[in-house]
Amino acid sequence: MLKEDFKPLTAAEEKTGKLIVNAAYVVHKALGPGLLEKVYEVCFCHVLAKDGCDIKRQLDIPIVFDEIVFSEGLRLDVLVNDLVICELKALETVNPVWQAQILSHLKLTGKRLGYLINFNVPLIKDGIKRFII
Fold first, then answer.
1. CB–CB of 36/120 below 8 Å?
2. What residues contact 107, with CB distance under 8 A and at least 6 apart?
């Protein structure tokens, strides 16, 4: 796909993305690395909700395969404003499969923007990866 063929993100997607990055910074600054993923998820979602975002946590997404709908197919950590997928981690070792996971989640849900956020880093900027399809 040529760069000219790439559809830009909507203003709502961009705004939501900025709120997500800000929430990650706020949470990491307050808590630092070394806690459980669930702690970061609860606090991250709290910050986003305070910013007026619609948050869905641990959301089950059905998978359609071979014209059959499987309800137990996929679970997203966080869906923000029904636009952006966030996969949260709190692990020391980065696993390359996480990138494939978020790209698959974007494709299967029809969403275009996703973030992989690992809170177990000294500097949160090193733990935030943005994905656009």
1. no
2. 133
Q: pLDDT (tens digit, 9 = 90+) per residue, 43-73?
A: 999 999 999 999 999 998 888 889 888 887 7
Does the reported pTM lie above 0.90? yes
- Looking at the chain, how many residues does it have? 133
Report residue 5's pLDDT band, with 50, 70 and 90 as the boundaries. low
Can you tell me whether residue 109 is helix, strand or coil?
Answer: helix
Residue 21 has pLDDT above 70, yes or no: yes
* Strand ranges in 32-91 using DSSP code E only, listed in sequence order: 55-65, 68-80, 84-89
Q: Give CA torsion, residues 51, 40, 75, 118, to 10 deg.
A: 110
Distance between CA atoms of residues 96 and 34, nearest Å = 20
Residues 69, 64: Cα–Cα separation, whole Å: 4
CB 96 within 8 A of CB 85: no
Query: In 3-state terms, the chain is what percent helix, strand and coil (to 5)?
Result: 40, 30, 30
Query: pLDDT at position 72, please?
Result: 77
* 128-132 and 113-118 strand pairing: antiparallel
